[in-house]
Amino acid sequence: MYDTTNSSNKIHELRTEDDSANSSVYEKTIASFQRYFRRAVLSASVKNITELFIATELPTLIADKTFRADVRVLTYVRKCEELCWYMCMQDPPMVIISPQKGQLVDKALFSFHGRSGKIVEVCVWPALLLHDNGPLMFKGYVLPEERNRNR
Length: 151
Prior knowledge:
- By secondary structure, the protein is of the alpha+beta class.
- The chain is about 55% helix and about 15% strand.
- The protein contains 4 helices and 6 strands, in the order ααααββββββ.
- The chain has a 3-stranded antiparallel β-sheet with strand order 1-4-5, with no helix packed on it.
- Strand 4 and strand 5 (about 135-140) form a beta hairpin.
- The radius of gyration is 26 Å and the shape is flat.
């Protein structure tokens, strides 16, 4: 007697393998289109994002209208915004780490600027990671608090 259960299971297994191979091809194709679309939209959207930042956020950061309207300042701000936007739009996005005043200095991520110490007073330049929990691209710089000389 012929066992139909066993043959139908084999057919199901073959179909499942074929479906997973097709879905893998579909997923790769969709991922490829996603990357292409992201690149195409990225270059077009960066100009709009930059102008929006200059109109809404820059006045809160630079109060002086004359200084804010300086061509050199605007050129610098546009370039910074463009670089930050590209870093955010990477897949996965790059990560900028900027410690706050009072935090302990992470010597793996930051070098000292001017003097050494243990507590951050000012972040001079942020650290840059390739992605979240990823490798360090560039070390940042911090100015630590001055040590109490009376101790």
